[in-house]
Write a structure and sequence with these properties.
alpha+beta; 20% strand; elongated; disordered N terminus
């Protein structure tokens, strides 16, 4: 029986819905991962060893911080960023899989998938512009110790509080 949207092959007599998880990952989980990776973050006010106090961002691991070479520069840590992406993907995968197994979601309309991918591409382009205009320093991993002074959560459209506001 053909279905509309991203679901496939509902088994007769109300049994489990079989979903092609590869399709689901590409059309639904990947854009949710991108959106949550960019939109929801944690800020960290940190005192690195032998450096000035600096803001870092990332959830659950700080993977981007203020650069020290010039004003407006950013430094990126690839392993921490990759771990954040994998954790986001795993969260959305498990949530979606659970909702499908419990039959809370029957199918995911193509319109929803299209809207999510549009938002995801917009965020990728916007973040790409910010990165390339920030004189980035890209490191495989953070190679220095730090002391966390303060931290909090924010959405991307909220400003990071200054230390004076604390």
């Amino acid at each position: 029986m053909p279905t509309r949207g991203l679901a496939s092959n509902v088994i007769a007599n109300g049994k489990q819905t079989k979903i092609k998880m590869k399709q689901l990952a590409i059309k639904f989980i990947m854009p949710l991962t991108i959106i949550s990776f960019v939109v929801v973050t944690k800020w960290w006010y940190i005192l690195p060893v032998d450096a000035r106090q600096t803001f870092y961002w990332g959830f659950p691991f700080a993977f981007v911080g203020e650069g020290w070479q010039t004003s407006g520069a950013l430094q990126f840590f690839l392993l921490e960023g990759l771990a954040d992406i994998l954790i986001n993907f795993s969260f959305w995968f498990l949530l979606t899989y659970t909702l499908l197994r419990l039959s809370i979601i029957k199918r995911i309309p193509k319109l929803v998938s299209g809207i999510l991918w549009s938002i995801g591409f917009f965020l990728i382009i916007t973040v790409g512009i910010v990165i390339f205009n920030s004189y980035p320093t890209i490191n495989l991993k953070r190679d220095y110790e730090w002391k966390i002074i303060n931290s909090g959560y924010k959405f991307i459209w909220q400003s990071t509080p200054t230390q004076d506001e604390e």
